[in-house]
Structure formats: C-alpha cells, structure tokens
Amino acid sequence: MSDLHSINEAINKRAGRKLLPSIAVSIFLILLVWVSLSSYRIIFAGIVTIAVILGIRELHRAFQAINIDIPLWSLTTATVALSAATWFGGVSGLTVATAIAFPCLLVLLLPRGTENFVRTASASSLALIYLPFLAGFLILLGRPHNGLERVMTFVVLVGCNDTFAYLTGVLFGKHPLAPKISPKKTIEGLVGSLVFTVIGGSVAFYYIMDSDWWLGAAAGVLTVFTATAGDLIESALKRDVAIKDMGSLLPGHGGIMDRLDSVLFAAPALWLALEIVRRAQDSGLL
Predict the structure, then answer these.
(1) What residues form the membrane-spanning segments (predicted)?
(2) Which of 88, 116, 145, 185 is surrounded by the fewest CB atoms within 10 Å?
(3) Where exactly are the structural domains of the chain?
C-alpha cells in the first residue's frame, strides 16, 4: 500500500495535479452529461449555462487580481441570454445574441466613467467571447436529435486528448512544449495525445456516430490542436494574473475554467467539422 501511495505521489508531483480525484471528477462529469442528454437535452443546455456562469465568476476574481473589474452580473445575464438564444435559435440565435450583448455590455460600462474604460471593456469583451459565445457551440452540439451521440463523441475526443497527453507526458515527457507558458506540458505528451485521440476519434465516429472512421481520425487531429491551444491560452492568462488555478471547485482539476479551457476551443472546431460533413453528405459528396 505504501508503494502505491509513493507511486501516486510521484505522479502527482510530476503532473502538477492529483490523479485519483481528477479521475473521479471526470467520471462524474461524463455521467452528468450522459444522463442529461439521454433524458431531456435541454437539461444539458442548462448544465452548460451554469458551468459558464461559474467560469465567469472565476474569471472575475482572476481579473480583480490585476485591478480589472469586469461586470459580473451583466456577463451573467448575457450568458443566460446567449445560451437560451442558442438552444432555441441555433447558430443564428447565438450569433445575433452575441451581436446584441456586445454593445449592451459596453453601454452598461459607461456609468463607471472613463477611467480604465479601455482595460475594462477589453477584458469584458474577452470574457463574453471566451466563455458564453464559445460555450454556445457545446449547446449546438447537443441540440439536434442525435445530440447525445455528437456530445459523447466530443467527450471521447477531448477525453483522449487530455488523458493521454497527461499519461505520456508523465511517463515519457522530457522536452517542454511551451516552457514559458505551461512548463509541465511536453512534446511527448502532445505526440501521445495525437496518436491516441486519432484512434479514439476513429472508433467514436465509427461506433457512436455511425460514420466513416477516417472522418473521426481527422476530427482527432483537429481536436488535439484546438484543445491544446485552449489549454495553453488559459495557462497564459493565469500566468499573467499570477494564479495557479482559476478556482478549487473541482478536486484534481482546479476551477471550472481549468476544466473548460480545452473544451471551449475544441467545441466550435468539431461543430464546424460535423456541419461540413453533414452538408457534404446531403449534397452527395460523401
């Protein structure tokens, strides 16, 4: 038992997070997504909305560390509006709601005066696009009649990317991928995630989506690079505001933002890929 504890502690130290709590939280989140989509899909939209609201609270606290006070309640209201518009109006609803929310957000900042207006407006706009807008594509994935299959395929892709980047990085990682941004990420981890996410995507597309395996392989490549970019961007943001984790709500992960970072960038890419495939199939090109 002591040997297992020592091995676990060594893994935790090298990876920078606790392994077992991380696995438990991941399983819980997957079950939550599966139950919501297999019962009433609108519940999934509600779960995404709540996650984004919690993420905005974390981002609000992070920006306060560098004396930027983004409007928490305005962004919370915008999140609810964007999520509802996306669920009921699709991608058009998301686009129009964002176009309306953006100027409203700026107008609501005017009563604060001109001091630090550019900084606050820029950070608020970043929060609007980074969280509710990008998260809207998660809702778009779960919105159609095959939303369960689409989202679970996405879960497989992101899960393979995160898990095997973590494992191969811990076991074989020697060459930092971006040492100034995220020192624990390695090139070996990226290669491992690429190999296994391509395999996972191929299997998921063939058995879950009932589609061609090679489309899944292409989606795997797309997911690895978009998810890794999202992870690095959140790491850069945390380094700029000098914090380790965005929060502590999820044991082994940190905050909601530490779980959403890769998801937010990968979701629009997969949604676009599925739309291209669907239209190509409808036109007889595939």
Answers:
(1) 19-36, 42-59, 71-88, 94-111, 123-142, 154-174, 186-207, 213-233
(2) 145
(3) 40-143, 144-286
